[in-house]
Structure formats: C-alpha cells, structure tokens
Amino acid sequence: MFSTIVLALLVSFALYALKIYTQFARNLTAAKTSGIPYVIIPFYQVNRLYQLSQIFLVPIVRKLPASWTELWFDLTLEWAWARRYEPFKRLGTDTFITVSPERNELYTADAAVISQITSRKNDFPKALEVYESIKLYGNNVITSEGQLWRHHRKITSPPFSEKNNHLVWTETLEQCQAMLNDWFDGNTGKTESKTIYTLADDAMRLSLYVISRAGFGVHLQWPGTEGAHANGGCQKRRRAQSIKPSDCPGT
Q1: What confidence score (pLDDT) does residue 227 get?
Q2: CA distance 90 to 78
Q3: Segment Disordered: which positions (predicted)?
Q4: Run of H or E including 40
Q5: Phi, psi of 95 (to 5 degrees)
C-alpha cells in the first residue's frame, strides 16, 4: 500500500515536471521566434503560489551569489516602480520579454511600441485569467474582451470624458491646497519641520471630496476653510501644531 502511494506521487511529480518543461520549451521557442531580447526567469510573478511563498523564498534567493541572480531575480517581483528604467538599461534594450514556464511577458519603454499595443487592441488581448479575482460581481470592463468589453465600455465611458477629467484635476488641486493650508495655517511657505498625525484621515477626506464633486456635483469645503465648520478647535490644533490625537480630550 505504501509503495503504491509513493509510486503514485512519483508519477504525478514526473508528469507535472514534464508539463512544466513542455510549457517552458514552448514559451522559449516563441520568445526566440519573436526576435525580441528575452530573459529567462524561473517564476511567473503573478503566479499565486509564488506570491504566497515570496515571504520565505525571497530572503533565501537574496543570499545566493549576485552573479547567479542579478539578471533575472528582480524581474520576478513587482519591479517597475522601484527599478524603473534600470532593467532596460542593464539589458541594453527598450523592449524585452521575460520567459517563464507559465507564460511570457513583454515589457517596453518604447513609446512607439506602447502606441501600437494600445491602438491595436484586437492584436494584443488581455490575459483575462489574471483578473479572475476581481470578477466578484461578474464581468466588467477590466475582466472582459471583445464584444462584452465593448458593451461594458459603452456603459462606463461617459464619466471619463475630457470635461470630467478636467474637473477632477482642478478639484484635486483645490482640495490639496486647502489641505496644505489647513496643515500650515495658510502659510505653505513655512520651512520648519513638523509631524502630521492625520495624514491617513486627510488622504481619505481628499479622495471623498474629489469623488463628491466629480461624481455627484457636490463641492465640499475643507474643514477650517472659509464657509466651512472646523471639526472643533482641538482638531484644528492637531494639524496646525502637530500634537498627538491622544492630547485632545474626547479623541
């Protein structure tokens, strides 16, 4: 009985390894055929198992000699914000492909390539399986393609007009200025260092006020500005004097 279980596990592992190898060989062939520079990586960064194991795997890999990992390891993480153009510069190209056993991904910093991809939607469809987790209430403009995508886009596109984009921009500027004035008592030219203890609350308020104006046509005044009621003197002092919330009675 035990030997049967072991044999079944070994066969399953062998079949899985064969599947991984076959997929990788197919992806590598596709990358070579494209003529675009490519980098082989062992993990697909959106793979759920890899994402869950990063907390354990990343520290281990970072202890390996840099010569083993410097070419590919950062490309298995969310690198675009932290590394920006550095991988492109290191590879000597503005466009490259990462090849993993699961799938290939193309990265580009070339404006002409980006223009082609975004203007030829039918030739560059989205990988819909990546967006399965946000289909909580069914399909939407992000999780769909083709005719279904056009249907959702027709419904959702009106609010994203140039007129409304301009409104969001100007309202955000106005509310940000009001927030800064509140922090610095109207003197945003002050240079002394201070600590803001209400940043999270103020960021949420900023977002809600912009949504209120752009989505519902209601302009809300920032607390403490002319025509608005401040949320109590201590709330005002918390921002102006950088005192802790615990120093205010009733907070």
Answers
A1: 56
A2: 17
A3: 228-251
A4: strand 38-40
A5: -145, 130
Residue appearing with tokens 């945003």: 188
Work out the mean pLDDT of the chain and round it to a whole number. 81
d(CA 140, CA 156): 9
Backbone angles phi, psi at 125, to 5 degrees: -70, 155
Q: Largest Cα–Cα distance of the chain, in whole Å?
A: 81
Q: Three-state SS for 130? A: helix
User: CA 232 to CA 154: how far, in whole Å?
Assistant: 45
Q: State the alpha helices, DSSP H only, in the chain.
A: 2-34, 48-62, 66-69, 80-83, 86-91, 111-119, 146-156, 162-183, 199-216, 233-241
| Tens-digit pLDDT profile for residues 158-188 | 878 888 899 999 999 999 999 988 888 765 5
Inform me whether the pLDDT recorded for 230 exceeds 60. Answer: no
Q: Cα separation of 56 and 58, whole Å?
A: 6
Mind giving me the DSSP string for 71-111? TTGGGGS--HHHHTTHHHHHHT-SEEEEE-SS-EEEEE--H
Entry pTM: 0.61
Residue 240 scores a pLDDT above 60: no
Please choose, from the candidates 166, 170, 168, 175, the residue with its C-alpha nearest in 3D space to the C-alpha of residue 215: 168
